[in-house]
Amino acid sequence: MNHSEHILVTIKKFAELTGLTEEAIRQYRKKGQWREKIHWVKAPNGRIFIIAKAAYAWIQGSVA
C-alpha cells in the first residue's frame, strides 16, 4: 500500500476536485452507495473525510 491510497479529503474538497456537488456526495453516503471505511471515514472530531482513491474508483466504475 502506498501513500496515495491514504489520501483523505473533505467533502468540499472532493466536490471541487471532481465536479460532483457536495449534496451528491452526501447522498452517496446516506444511500449506502459509498460505504464507511471503504469510501469514507469519520474522524474522532466527527468530520467526514472521503478516501480519494476508493471514491475515484467508484466514479470510474471500478471496484474499490
Which SSEs are present, and which pair or pack?
Blueprint: E1 8-10, H1 11-18, H2 22-30, E2 40-42, E3 48-51, H3 52-59
Antiparallel strand pairs: 1-3, 2-3
Question: How much β-strand is present in the residues?
Answer: 15-25%
Query: What does the average pLDDT come to?
Result: 92
Helix/strand/pairing category: alpha+beta
Sketch the major β-sheet. 3 strands, antiparallel
- Taken in chain order, the helices and strands follow as EHHEEH
Sequence of strands across the biggest β-sheet: 1-3-2
How many domains, as an integer?
1
First and last CA, distance: 14 Å
* Uncertain segments: none
| Tally of contiguous helical segments | 3
What's the short version?
The protein is an alpha+beta fold and 64 residues long. The chain has 3 helices and 3 strands, in the order E-H-H-E-E-H. It has one domain.
If you had to describe this structure to a student in words, what would you say it looks like?
- This protein is α+β, with helices and mostly antiparallel strands and 64 residues long.
- It has one domain (3-59).
- It contains three helices and three strands, in the order E-H-H-E-E-H.
- The chain has a three-stranded antiparallel β-sheet.
- A hairpin with a 5-residue loop joins strand 2 and strand 3.
- The protein is globular, with a radius of gyration of 11 Å.
- It starts with 7 loop residues before the first strand and ends in a 5-residue tail after the last helix.
- The model has no long low-confidence stretch (mean pLDDT 92).
